[in-house]
Fold this protein.
Amino acid sequence: MPLNSAQESCHNGHVGTQFAREPAPRTMTYCLGIMTQEGLVMASDSRTNAGFDDLNIARKMHTFSQPGERAFVVLSSGSLSLSQSVLNMARASFNAGEGLARVDSMYAAARELGECVRQVAEMDRAALERDNYSFNVHLLLGGQVLGEAPALYMIYPQGNPISATEESPFLQLGEYKYGRPLLDRGIVFRTTSLMVAAKYALLSFDATMRSNGAIGPPIELLLYRRDSLVLDCYRKFSHGDAELQAIHGRWEQSLRRAVEDLPDLHFASASLEETTQSILI
């Protein structure tokens, strides 16, 4: 099941161009949601692009809240124009007291966002596909509605949602492969604290930025504490942030030291030629 396919080139005004297109740029999105017993961690980068030499900054984290009743965080990837259309539609409905302002569950909230995706698809998909652009927008929705537990969902371009579970407590968008192994080994729904999950999130971004230079600060990080129903724990890590650099340095040192402390490997004394022959036999 693909979690990325985050092409971000449709916002640059080039839709409809008749000239030969350049190869697709590297993925320039990484968004992450982690669900723990204590609450949620939501994190996103802020880079978007229209080609190899066109780098822009655009927020991918969006919040909707009615303190004491509901709190939602939405992370977006894909075409910037499409995600903006979806979120503008959701925002207008919310401000009018409809949509996300009235849903009674997180599943209903995910379905509401999915319906916004489908409405934008009705308006824009045909025109995009005529010019060989895919309808590409993915969303992560995390939050809580009064009366139920926090939840985390991914919404696909078709509008259908999938939820994180205790067994699979995190969801990713975009350039996910570099930051996933650490999460697979470290995140445990019932025992990972919210603050530790936030550190895992930053380390996951650190691994991604190390392997893909297209991903980088600013990084937005939001912690939602279970049953608080308010969004009041937020950080933005800009380029050169002292804490981000300190975590990067400490992690690299600790990782190298951990590898050096592993037991030494033992090798058979047979020659390479003898070993190769025995394997062939």
